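Quick illustration for those who missed Monday's session on complexes.
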Amino acid sequence: MGGVITKSESPRKGWVPESKLEAKMVEAMQRRALEGTSLKSFNNIILKFPKIDESLRNCKNIFEQFDENANGSIDPEELKHCLQKLEISFSEDEITDLFEACDIRDNMGMKFNEFIVLLCLVYLLKEDPASLHAKSLMGLPNAEATFETLVDAFVFLDKNKDGYVSKNEMVQAINETVCGERSSGRIAMKRFEEMDWDKNGMVTFKEFLFAFTRWIGIDEMEEEEDGEDRV
Ligand SMILES: [Ca+2]
Ligand SMILES: [Ca+2]
Ligand SMILES: [Ca+2]
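Prediction with calcium ion bound:
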């Protein structure tokens, strides 16, 4: 598996993926970027926030459905069942990689916001360019429409289509919207820093998604409910 990513040529644009999964994400994103984006400005993204917010919250029932023992988190076994049910045929290794990448609290249990990020990554990785948005890939048409919006937003930000959003690209995206305003650079920096979780100067799609769940407050919603003191 993963044979596709072992290209011998080094990436032209200089950023080396930090994991196999990241490499796959970047590749899928680059492929997707060829189709372009429907967004014209950063404002377009902001305007979509409420709709995305609502739609992601509606994913709560998907989460509950797959949280078989109803303990408020999805464990690796439950995730496996979930992907089977969605007819997603990833290898064991791929599932483990995905789980580890999204289990940011690192406690072998996936909270709602982590699960959303995971599903969205699955959506990106599963997408077959040949079957473009023609049909639901995972049997979750509403969620998928939102995932598509998020992918589209990332493609908009990733100006040079290398699968990452750099600080410059963020500044560029925001400047396109707020022409000539002095504060826009600072806003861009702040947004960028919020997204660049590991502070390595590049934002991956995964980081972007986590930032998104924070911006619309999905992770807070989780913390209020809490109940994860004990394992
Ligand atoms: Ca569970
Ligand atoms: Ca880029
Ligand atoms: Ca980063």
